[in-house]
Design goal:
5 helices, binds magnesium ion, mainly alpha, Helix Hairpins
Amino acid sequence: MHSIDNPNAPDAKTTIAEIKRWVDEFSTERDWGKFHLPKNLAMSIAIEAAEIMEHFQWLEPDATLSLEQRQQIGEEIADVLSYVLRLASVMGIDLASTLEAKMVKNAQKYPV
Ligand SMILES: [Mg+2]
C-alpha cells in the first residue's frame, strides 16, 4: 500500500505547515538564516535533485532497487523537500495555494 492510500501513514496526518516548521526551527536553532538566501536555497534544491539522479545514473530502466537504495533515494528526496520548504518559507510563499493554482494552469495547458 502506498502511503497516499494509507490513512495511518504520517503523510496522511502531517500538514505542510508542520513540516515547514520543522525545517524552519532546525535552521533557526543553528543560526543558518544568514546562509538561507533564495539564491543559495535554489542552488541547493538543484544540487540535491542531482543527488537523486546519481542513484539512477547507470541503472537499466527495468532495474530493481534494493531496500538500501530506496532508503538512500528517500533521504535525497527529503533533502530536496527540506530546501523547497525552506525556500518557500524564506520567500513567504504559501505552497498549498501556489501548487493548486499551478495545477489549474497545467490543466489548461495540458487538457485530458
Ligand atoms: Mg543530499
